[in-house]
Amino acid sequence: xxxxxxxxxxxxxxxxxxxxxxxxxxxxxxxxxxxxxxxxxxxxxxxxxxxxxxxxxxxxxxxxxxxxxxxxxxxxxxxxxxxxxxxxxxxxxxxxxxxxxxxxxxx
Length: 107
Prior knowledge:
By secondary structure, the chain is an alpha+beta fold. It is 44% helix and 26% strand.
């Protein structure tokens, strides 16, 4: 009976210490996981908004081509070697290479 009484007397304030531990943990997760993902998303969206004809792109599926037409949510690509015209969604574009970036810079 005496052991039962000892177990029932738990120290108070356990909820406050738990809260004090969770707040910094949530802040760490925000700064290490959520904030960088939001920055990448904004950067990727800005890249898609700046697409123009003549840009060379690579899709997430590995398709490489040159943008020849833009629509609201899709783009038309010219894909070598047979100059095929392919329509893909803008969301599938992962890398954009503008003609200025393509030229090799030699000194």
